[in-house]
Amino acid sequence: MREFREYGQENRFIPAGPFKVRLPGVHYRWEWADYIQGLIMCAVCLGAIPILQETLGMPFEVAIAIVVLNGFLYTWHTLLGDPVVPGWITPAIPLLIAYCLLFPEGAPRMQALIAFEMGLGIFAIFLGTTGLAGKLISLIPHCIKSGVIMGAGFSAIYMIFTTGGKFDSFPITCSLCLIVAFYLLFSNHFKSLMAKGGIWTTIGNLGILPCIIVAIVAAPLFGETPWPVIEWSITKPAFGVLWTEWVPWGALGWPTLSMYAASIPTILAVYIVLFGDVVQSQALVKDADVTRPDELIEYSPDRAHLIFGIRNLIMSVMGPDVTMCGPLWAAMQVVTCERYKKGRESMDSLFGGAASFRWGTFTGYWLMPIVTLTKPILPVALALTMIVQGFVSVRIGVMESKSFRDLGIAGVIGGVLLAKGAAYAFAVGILATFLAYGNDFFKGDVEFGHLWSEQIEKWLEKEEELIKKADTASIA
Fold first, then answer.
1. How high is the pLDDT of residue 339?
2. What is the CA 210 to chain-centroid distance, rounded?
3. Quick one: which of 88, 146, 155, 395 has the fewest CB in 10 Å?
């Protein structure tokens, strides 16, 4: 087997300023297992198509052109030295949709999206260049971060279950897929089965692919979609139409200065969610790295900011996208890292696994048999992704709070964000935090211990004892 590195060292690379350029077959081994999985899992990425159609009124061929362009940019992460499986900024999609819907359909809505995505890209590049990313997020009070992340989770779930949402159109299929997804991803019983190895481990490593397979079979079986009509050809994205009618340098025109200004609160709200993905990326890579002493993996948040900042900036002028360009596809990063942990024979380098998977999804976009097989259930794939992401966002958002008072403020912020959008949520959050903590605005609740500390666990146990005693006394 070809050696791409010395034991305990980084894979070889071509230095390019802040980037470390790595090419498949030259600087890391190609991983066929991850590539094949990517071919099928592209169905989740194709779930962006119904969002683009419903929010922006795009034709299918234009929407798939945006998906293909975004899919190519996914491969830039491993190419430039970021050892992750990148994806959408999934929890923030409802926030951006709500922002876009404030503008009339057509040119104003597209221009508002362009202003937002361009601003987000420039902001991320600035933070990555200056190294200010970590400093900025540390200044935001915990209760506001908690509220925004929870609000993003509420919005994701509400978008699917609201009247006329995806669940109403596919109630049986969505229910079956959610049962399978929550069992495979969050069930302690299934974790115990995976620990036994064999087929259970294989199924667990497939992420949400089994749910997609269930949807493909169940939706037509229960009459919620027609049976797919397989086409044996190559996808033909409408790049010509995209680049003449849907971009700022075409017939659409550039956003106004007021649109750039109006996008700032949503950019800040989305960035809080996005930064959580950066932190999660770093944790997952570190966890994988310590189990494999044969490879040294360097994860740089600043480099990650530069890459997804450049991606958002490019997409804003080449193919504006409601799903945005994020730093992580958490579910698939977990799957990739778990296989990597099994040893060098299983996956030589984390770069090889992540890159091969993303080249697999990019290939899948071009294959009409895969596109047409999954096309009827793309709304279900989207609903599944949003609900799972909503679950994770609410969980992470709650854990961001440091006290019960934080959690109460966060709940209010999350509710306002769902009802009124990011600008109102920030205003309410700043006011509520100032009224609650005054001069300790940035410190938060200094009177109460951490919500998840041993002190609180003991306090809760004591409270339960008092309740039991009170119940006993009342019975007596």
1. 81
2. 19
3. 395
User: Concatenated DSSP letters for 204-267?
Assistant: HTTTTHHHHHHHHHHHHHTTSSPPP----SB----HHHHHHHSSTTTTS-PPPHHHHHHTHHHH
Residue type for 255, please?
P
Per DSSP, the residues of 108-132 read HHHHHHHHHHHHHHHHHHHHHHHT-
Q: How confident is the model at residue 476 (pLDDT cuts 50, 70, 90)?
A: very low
Rounded to two decimals, what is the model's pTM? 0.81
The number of beta carbons lying within 10 Å of the beta carbon of residue 96 is 28
Classify residue 162 by its DSSP letter. Answer: S
Tokens 């795009």 correspond to: 58
Enclosing H/E stretch for 203: helix 199-204
Scan for tokens 């709200």, then name that residue: 269
The mean pLDDT of the chain is 88
For residues 58 and 54, what is the distance between their CA atoms, to the nearest angstrom? 8
Report the C-alpha gap between 261 and 258 in whole angstroms: 5
pLDDT digits (tens, 9 = 90+) for 36-64: 888 888 888 998 999 999 999 999 999 99
* 361 in Cβ contact with 336 (< 8 Å): no
State which H helix or E strand residue 419 sits in.
helix 404-420
List b or e across 51-79, with b for residues whose CB sees 16 or more CB atoms inside 10 angstroms.
Answer: bbbebbebebbbbbbbbbbbbebbbbbbb
Question: Per-residue pLDDT for 165 more than 90?
Answer: no
Distance, in Å, from the CA atom of 15 to the CA atom of 6, rounded to the nearest integer, reads 18
- Separation between Cα atoms, residue 130 and residue 361, nearest integer Å: 33
The answer to whether 284 and 353 are in contact (CB under 8 A) is no
What pLDDT, in 10s, does the model give residues 195-215? 887 888 778 767 678 888 999
